[in-house]
Amino acid sequence: MESELKSLAKKLQNKEISPVELLQKSLNKIDLLDSKINAFINVDREQALEAARDSEKRIQTGKSLSEYDGIPVGIKDNIVVSGRASCCASKILEGFVSPYSATVIEKLVAKGFIPMGRLNMDEFAMGSSTENSAFKTTRNPYDLQRAPGGSSGGSAAAIAADYLPVTLGSDTGGSIRQPAAFTGIAGMKPTYGTVSRYGLIAFASSLDQIGPFTRLASDNEIIYNIIRGSDPKDSTCLPDASYKPPAYDIKSLKIGVPEEFMENVSPEVKKSFYETLDFLKREVITNGEIVNVELPHQKYGIAVYYLIATSEASANLARFDGVRYGRRAQNAKDLNDIYEMSRTRGFGSEVKRRILLGTYALSSGYYDAFYGKAQKTRALIQQDYLKAFEKLDLIMMPTAPSVPFKIGEKTTNPVEMYLSDVLTVGASLAGIPAISVPGPFENLPVGIQLQGNYFSENLLYDVSQKIQNAFPAKRPALQ
Predict the structure, then answer these.
(1) Within a 10 A sphere around the Cβ of 26, how many other Cβ atoms?
(2) CA 113 to CA 166: how far, in whole Å?
(3) How confident is the model at residue 397 (pLDDT cuts 50, 70, 90)?
(4) Catalytic: which of 76, 107, 410, 466?
(5) Pairing state between β 434-438 and 72-76
(6) In the beta sheet, which residues pair with residue 143?
(7) What CATH code is carried by the domain that includes residue 24?
(8) Mean of the pLDDT values across residues 309-331?
């Protein structure tokens, strides 16, 4: 399957289309469809057009920054861009304009990519449906009555609706992979520490990771290789010397399938998964093997994830108090009043819920019973994966237990919504890379998730592209 990015790059460099014309095509599609889909919080038209004109001059004079000079990219609203608004889809940060750009933005801009707007998300990346945004609910391009997943639903929907060839999202417990699954595209959560988090507004610092959305895994790999790399501004970012992709023979791969996880997935997901598995066994890993793999502590994943993530969120979001950061409530009588009123009015219900959960888990008398125990279990989950990868090259499972659910279907039951992440949180807790690509489907998309050992992104991309070549996802029939 031909790379969409390389095809676009070739047209730009050969002057078959100009960066301004390409950007205008994106803007026209957004104007036509986004009043229904709501992928964007705002579109930076003038700044993007100015950047496109600059790109056009570079191409005309033979001074392109890279072969991708002039390609527009959409940015999730928790990744800052200098001079642009970033509010994490929250009222408390409404009006904030960043004085600097995230490292991933600097790397893309250095190659000539053009940031062109802020994509909708669950507030502070807390959610699995993009219904928790303070501004709008993003809808799935395959069915406008269904959710696009979350928290990076806007980033995923923008690709599925064909607004853009590339968007960036962030993944804490599945927030790239689950939206990618729900919208029939490719989304990668990289190895923790291979992509700088500098300029990503934090939710849970030990879990957050920036990653790309594209239609094809091959294009996703291009973007990943541009944004990855060490960064002295981020102490959790790994040095380049530690990045050691594995060598492999794709025909001889050994793939593990945790059969216990297949018990609670929907019939549509199960059918797609086993059809994909049969294809790999028959056409790709002809000398390899598919075996059952046990991840005994994965059953605690949701509980562990939500204790750790909410605890870190309560600490990270403490700064948004109306004094240091965030909009200050008017008519407050004293300092305590400022804190209480600013946070009460500024945060949505899901953010408040998670702050309260995390604060409770970290409180005196409960720290060891909840947060401390969760961290110990997290280590066991990580060890399960490491033990499995001593004998396996990949682990394969569905990305989500169901096809996209209807908007409003799970909002009244937070626990049911949290269970949407049951198949994705394990890789996040272990810090390993994981990608979602579409498997075969009839009406609504189904995501196939591949998880690998640290730094095995090259292998994940290779296998993913073979899946996409065999089962090209039909595009949504937008009305």
Answers:
(1) 23
(2) 10
(3) very high
(4) 76
(5) unpaired
(6) 140
(7) 3.90.1300.10
(8) 90
Range of the domain at 46: 1-479
- Give, for 435, the enclosing helix (H) or strand (E): strand 434-438
Q: From the candidates 175, 314, 342, 436, give the one annotated as an active-site residue.
A: 175
* Cβ neighbourhood burial of 121 (10 Å; 0-12, 13-18, 19+): buried
| Of the candidate ranges 180-184, 320-324, 453-457, the one whose mean pLDDT is the lowest | 320-324
- pLDDT score recorded for residue 477: 85
Inter-CA distances, 424 with 283, 290, 449, Å: 27, 21, 8
The tokens describing 206, both together, are 């030990």
Provide the residue type at 253 as one letter.
Answer: L
Q: Is the pLDDT of residue 255 over 70?
A: yes
pLDDT at 479 over 70: no
In this predicted structure, which of 10-19, 26-35, 323-332 has the lowest mean pLDDT?
Answer: 323-332
What tens digit of pLDDT does each residue of 20-34 get?
999 999 999 999 999
**CB-side neighbour CA atoms (13 Å) of 100:** 8
Main-chain phi, psi angles of 400, to 5 degrees: -130, 150
Token pair 């303070």 is found at 134
Distance CA(139)–CA(34), nearest Å, equals 9
Give me 460's structure tokens. Answer: 């994940």
Tell how far CA 300 is from the center of its chain: 23
Active site residue 76: yes
What's the structural domain count of the chain?
A: 1
Sequence-separated (6 or more) residues with CB below 8 Å from residue 423: 174, 261, 397, 398, 399, 400, 401, 449
C-alpha 72/C-alpha 77 separation (Å) is: 16
Beta strand segments in 234-383, E: 254-257, 289-292
Furthest CA-CA distance within the chain: 73
Strand partners, 195: 228
* Adjacent-strand bridge partners of 140: 143
Dump strand ranges (E) for 21-121: 40-43, 72-76, 114-119
Q: Give the integer Cα–Cα distance in Å for 85 and 343.
A: 20
Cβ neighbours, 10 Å, residue 318: 15
Residue 225, pLDDT above cutoff 70: yes
Q: For position 219, what pLDDT does the model report? A: 98
Report the amino acid identity of residue 220. N
* CA–CA separation, 116 and 31 (whole Å): 14
Active site residue 175: yes
Q: Please check whether residue 341 is in contact with residue 323, taking contact to mean a CB–CB distance below 8 angstroms.
A: no
Alpha-carbon distance 451 to 442, whole Å?
A: 25
**Active site residue: 26, 151, 155, 464, which one?**
151
**Type and span of the H or E element at 226:** helix 217-227
pLDDT value at residue 421 = 95
